[in-house]
Amino acid sequence: MKITKIEIIRNKKSIELPEAWRPAWREPDADPVKGLDFSFYKVYTDEGIVGIGPATSPALDPFVEKLLIGFDPFYVERFWEIAMKGRELSLGRQSYGGLEIALWDIIGKALGKPVYKILGAYRDKVMAYAATSQLRAPMEHAKQALKFLELGIKAIKLRMHRTNLEDDIKVVRAVRDAVGDEMIIMVDANQNNLSINYDFWSFNTAVKVARELEKLNVYWLEEPLPKFNLRSLGRLCDMVDIYIAGGEHATCIYELRDALLIDAYDVIQPDIILGNIGITGIRKLAMMADGFGKDIVPHVCGGGNNGLYLAATL
User: Fold this and answer.
1) CA Rg value for the chain
2) CA distances in angstroms from 111 to 105, 198, 308, listed in the order given
3) Is the pLDDT of residue 91 over 60?
4) Residue-wise pLDDT tens digits, 37-63
5) If you count Cβ atoms within 10 Å of the first and of the last residue's Cβ in the chain, which end, N or C, has fewer?
6) Burial group, residue 228, by CB count within 10 angstroms (0-12, 13-18, 19+)
């Protein structure tokens, strides 16, 4: 089997959202998001099988196109080694993960099996959590959490990083009071993805917040410090009982390997697209994490591509 052609399919008009929203990690005065766009790869083969993968770059990298035309998709490990292993490339870096996913899609279709079984199945169900993305008043978040609970969702992730930390704590407290012990609560501080109008937390602030969240039985605190502060993250893990999570902004698996070596995180959160990691890389990383006794919870945030993104991650 050989690859014969690669296409990028894009929507011609943004998909209008029923309600505009402003992500917590954007500028406070930024325009709200009113619509979503999507794009995906179609990778054609000489046997009529077509692989699909999410595309996050506007154009196909000529280097990768030249590499893949005439390429056997079953050699996906070779593609990962050449195009993705430890590389940070400006043009199309994020798109490589989507192409690698398309190769795995071809393999699954050729063998008539879902990819997770080809990789070595362990379970057929995973626990889902609802990730909130906006900063809202305490009671608004509490009502939203109760709605999630009615839907059978047993875990929720809240955003944090208002200018007044006590306001953040009030939100978590309101949700805990509303749901009791029926929901797991996680908190994301987004300290790798803040606008210039926010100050990064100091180490002491991260410790203070973590200890306050422990009192509210919060399961993890995500990205309490920027990713380059690995040693400080490791110190934080040692000093607090709450789990410290992070890793979505890592640009290759070796960044997260280094984090594992110094116990920078309790929970590793690689992103198969943003991190140029792919299915091949996340499998390698999962084995590393297991060797260190760490949990791995992949990050997923694909906008209009979220369906493909989530399916590939699962």
Assistant:
1) 20
2) 10, 50, 20
3) no
4) 788 899 999 999 999 998 877 778 788
5) C
6) exposed
Position 95 scores a pLDDT of 59
Find how far residue 70's CA is from the centre of its chain: 32
AA identity, residue 157: K
Q: At what angle do helices 253-261 and 278-291 cross, to 10 degrees?
A: 10
Q: Which CATH number applies to 3-120: 3.30.390.10, 3.40.50.150, 1.10.260.40, 3.40.80.10?
A: 3.30.390.10
CATH topology of domain 130-313: TIM Barrel (3.20.20)
Residue whose tokens read 């795995």: 104
The tens digit of pLDDT for each residue in 115-153 reads 999 998 888 888 888 888 878 889 999 999 999 999 999
Alpha carbon 309 to its chain's center: 9
Residue-wise burial string across 72-107, b where 16 or more C-beta atoms lie within 10 A, e elsewhere: ebeebeebbeebbbeeebeebbbbbbbbbbbbbbbb
CATH 3.20.20.120 in the chain is located at: 130-313
Residue 278 identity: G
Q: CA–CA distance from 82 to each of 46, 72, 100, 289 (Å)?
A: 23, 14, 12, 23
What is the C-alpha separation between 237 and 166, in angstroms, rounded? 22
